[in-house]
Amino acid sequence: MVNPYKEFKQGSYIIRTFEPTVNESELVWHRDKKDRVVIPISGKGWRFQMDNDLPKDIQIGEEIFIPKNTFHRLHLGESVLKVKILEK
Q1: How far apart are CA 39 and CA 54, in angstroms?
Q2: How far apart are CA 36 and CA 54, in angstroms?
Q3: CA–CA distance, 58 with 78 (Å, rounded to integer)
Q4: Taking 70 as the threshold, does the pLDDT of residue 1 lie above it?
Q5: Bridge partners of 15?
Q6: pLDDT band at 2, cuts 50/70/90?
């Protein structure tokens, strides 16, 4: 399976970019093996959803903490979403 994003390493961060043209069926529920802090850099209309929660609008600059082994997913937005990811 091909990832629905592009990424590169920048210092201690991973920079990840999602295009608004990605097929929404590729934005699947998943779990990560490590705790992560995700910081949105740009993007409009994207939403983030944790397991057993309603989707929430992504706010630029607002940190999202994702505990390891917690199901979560993205919901498609209107423009390119770019985030910084720090794994703990």
Answers
A1: 19
A2: 20
A3: 12
A4: no
A5: 8, 84
A6: confident
Q: Which residues contact 3 (CB under 8 A, 6 or more apart)?
A: none
Q: Is 74 exposed, middle or buried (0-12, 13-18, 19+ CB in 10 A)?
A: buried
Name 87's bridge partners: 36
Say which residue the tokens 């590729």 belong to. 26
Reported as a single tens digit per residue, the pLDDT across 49-87 is 999 999 999 999 999 999 999 999 999 999 999 999 999
* Cα 77 to Cα 67: distance, rounded to the nearest angstrom: 23
* Beta-carbon contacts of residue 2 (< 8 Å; ≥ 6 apart): none
Token representation of residue 81? 């979403």
pTM passes above 0.90: yes
